[in-house]
Amino acid sequence: MISLDKINLSFGGFELFKEISFLINPKDRIGLIGKNGAGKTTLLKIISGLNNPTSGSVGISKDVTIGYLPQQMKVSDTRTLKDEATQAFKEILQLQKDITRLNGEIAESEDYHSADYLGKLDRVAELHERFQLLGGDNYEAELERTLLGLGFERSDFGRSTSEFSGGWRMRVELAKLLLQKPDVFLLDEPTNHLDIESIQWLEDFLKDYKGAVVLVSHDKTFLNAVCNRTIEISLGKILDQKMNYSDFLNWKEEQKKINLAAYQNQQKLIEDTEKFIERFRYKASKAVQVQSRIKQLDKIDRIEIEEEDNAALKLSFPPAPRSGKVVVSAKHITKAYGSHLVLDDIDLTIEQGEKIAFVGRNGEGKTTLARIIMNELEHKGDMQLGHNVKVGYFAQNQAQLLNEELTIFDTIDEIAVGDIRTKIRDILAAFLFRGEDIDKKVKVLSGGEKSRLAMIRLMLEPVNFLILDEPTNHLDIRSKEILKNALANFTGTVLVVSHDRDFLDGLVNCVYEFRNKKAKQHLGGIFEFLYRKKMESLKELEVKNNNSRANNSVQKEKGKNELSFEEQKEISRNISRFEKQVQETEQKISDLEARVEDMDKLLSSSTQIDDHSLFDKYEELKKKLEEMMHEWENANEELEAWKVKKTW
Fold first, then answer.
1. DSSP class of 325
2. For a 10 Å CB count at each end of the chain, is N or C smaller?
3. Which CATH architecture is the domain 313-528 placed in?
4. 88: burial class by Cβ within 10 Å (0-12, 13-18, 19+)?
């Protein structure tokens, strides 16, 4: 459908792209990844026709339509939500007008045999066929389904779009794009303004979509769920593999070892060649050999490898000062903005060392409760911080609070103390501020760069209770990993308001779900919470189906009982199958763990090891053990799911 042929892009003497070529095929699900500044957004703009390359070409098949969603866009606020979303159906609406007009003209005609009359009949038939093909009969139902899936309420449909925040306006634009159903979606960070439920809805939509998708995202879970092909922009070139993001990382790690060995061999060859040239440059007897080596050097295709910031991986929060056992005690918290009730009679207790997530749809009060805990908002009810609690707060607008006249380096230097002052450059590099960048003033930074800088300041403050409101929105995958590892090792208490499932996974041990002005506690991690939510929704659906069946005739009721018996047999068979699979994998895990333990003892002993293949066998064993653990987890999840069905 779309071909990129030898795309080059240069500006200011810097080559961003170096002869990039690839195809976008029907039904491709491409995750476009790379470091900040690698050119992901620029490449999307080139594909969409908004930017032109320095050289090379973009070929688009005839009649192929492209839908592009940028990270930021200019929007107009002159319509209601429903009217604005309806703009996605311009062709359908025009067809309706044309059909209505022609039907009126046909009704007024008196000469039923004229060429004009017959021509209008044919034209109406053609337009009606096109109308049906575009789904004209059910476009309003599709519009409502999409808006509801993206988190809007039916009561929002009549509201002016000017009443919505910037994040919700982005959802309107996303809804319009999805409803247009282009042949190719180009989506630049579409999940930044979505909550968890809306992200899951968008995942399902894109997985079932008949067209192609090119997606830029820093959400690893979203990338893995949607994409079956990964293209990474690195050093101006691309790596293109038909695999999801996680598999691509594993493949790249293997390739990195191969490339590093090739790079080192090439460097040795270059060094030896240069030494030969330098040694015999002025000896006439060696002139031919010298010229040959010079030509050989010129022909070498130099291998490039990306630099690794290994120091960045060790970044951590300072030790947390000791606090009391109870960090937050909140009782009967109620908050309203005028007549609009946001929180109703909330009770909440947070204890020292807990790592908690606030999740739920946007507008349900997550940030409001966080700000109440910070004592930033008036409210009804009692809210107390515990003994010696020192709070560090990262708000969604935290970047706006920085001193714009300071440089990046000075912004960190003014709060850094002790040994940290000697590591400021390493810390800044961990969050992608390198070289001359650190001398830039804050006022010239982008929103994402300011957010990263604000996060660094927070990481250097000696606090014992961190409240983070959507901290990952402007962080790339590497920076998010650094922050997540630092939070996981933080000895204090953490409260995170976030929709980023991968960021929360393995970090939090308690989830508060905000819905209908209440906050419900769920013990466990984020994926345990989402799994239970899915089971609950399936159970509710089954109850509704059972209630509807109860109104059927006696004959249908009999049929239902027979069917239920067959279903019970199927459920029992599956439970037995997965119980057996769990037992078998547990035995395999036990055997593998014993073999790994034996290898550990052998490799850690003082005995000299001549067989170097043992190291490869050891790594292979560990990989098999990891795969078997993953298989065991999947089997357990399936077993629990079938057991839940048996109780319905």
1. S
2. C
3. 3-Layer(aba) Sandwich (3.40)
4. buried
**What is the per-residue pLDDT for 223?**
92
Determine which helix (DSSP H) or strand (DSSP E) holds 260, and give its type and residue range: helix 245-280
Rounded to the nearest angstrom, the gap between the alpha carbon of residue 518 and the centroid of all alpha carbons in its chain is 27
438-448: average pLDDT:
81
pLDDT band at 551 (very low <50, low <70, confident <90, very high): very low
What the block records as the tokens of 487 is 């939070």
Residues in the chain: 648
3-class SS at 151? coil
From 212, 214, 266, select the one nearest 240 (Cα to Cα): 214
Alpha-carbon distance of 575 to 638, in angstroms, equals 8
Instruction: Determine if the pTM surpasses 0.70.
Output: no
What ranges in 134-244 are assigned the alpha helix state H?
A: 139-149, 166-180, 196-208, 220-226
- Beta strand 212-216 with 518-523: parallel, antiparallel or unpaired? unpaired
| Phi-psi map region of 305: left, alpha, beta (phi>0 left; psi -120 to 50 alpha) | beta
Radius of gyration, alpha carbons of the chain:
30
Position of tokens 């440089």? 407
Binned at pLDDT 50, 70 and 90, residue 540 comes out as very low
Amino acid at 582: V
In angstroms, the CA 169 to CA 173 distance is: 7
Q: Give the model confidence (pLDDT) of 280-337 as tens digits.
A: 777 777 777 878 888 888 888 787 766 554 444 456 777 888 888 999 999 999 998 8
Higher per-residue pLDDT: 620 or 602: 620
Q: Do 493 and 355 touch, CB atoms closer than 8 A?
A: yes
Under 8 Å between Cβ of 150 and 198: yes
**Residue 260: partners with Cβ closer than 8 Å, 6 or more residues away:** 305
- Least confident residue range of 27-36, 199-208, 420-429: 420-429
> 106 with 124: CB under 8 angstroms?
yes
Instruction: Please report, rounded to a whole number, the percentage of residues in the chain having pLDDT higher than 70.
Output: 87
What pLDDT is attached to residue 117?
A: 80
With 0-12 / 13-18 / 19 or more C-beta atoms within 10 angstroms meaning exposed / middle / buried, residue 180 is: middle
Q: How far apart are CA 539 and CA 455, in angstroms?
A: 41
Record the tokens describing residue 21, joined without a space.
């070529």
What's 51's DSSP letter? S
- Domain spans in the chain, listed from the N-terminal domain onward: 81-181, 250-306, 313-528, 552-647
For the chain, the first-to-last Cα distance in angstroms comes to 48
3-state secondary structure of 498: coil
Q: Which residues contact 388 (CB under 8 A, 6 or more apart)?
A: 321, 322, 323, 324, 464
pLDDT per position as a tens digit, 217-263: 888 889 999 999 999 998 889 999 999 999 998 998 888 888 788 88
Long-range contacts made by residues 16-24, C-beta under 8 angstroms, separation at least 24? 16/42, 16/236, 17/42, 17/43, 17/53, 17/233, 17/236, 18/235, 18/236, 18/237, 19/56, 19/237, 20/56, 20/233, 20/236, 20/237, 20/238, 21/56, 22/231, 22/238, 22/240, 24/184, 24/212, 24/214
3-state helix, strand, coil in the chain (%, to 5): 55, 20, 25
Predicted confidence at residue 292, as pLDDT, reads 83
Give dist(CA 183, CA 202) in Å, integer: 17
Joined together, the tokens standing for residue 452 give 């990263």
In contact, 81 and 152? CB cutoff 8 Å: yes
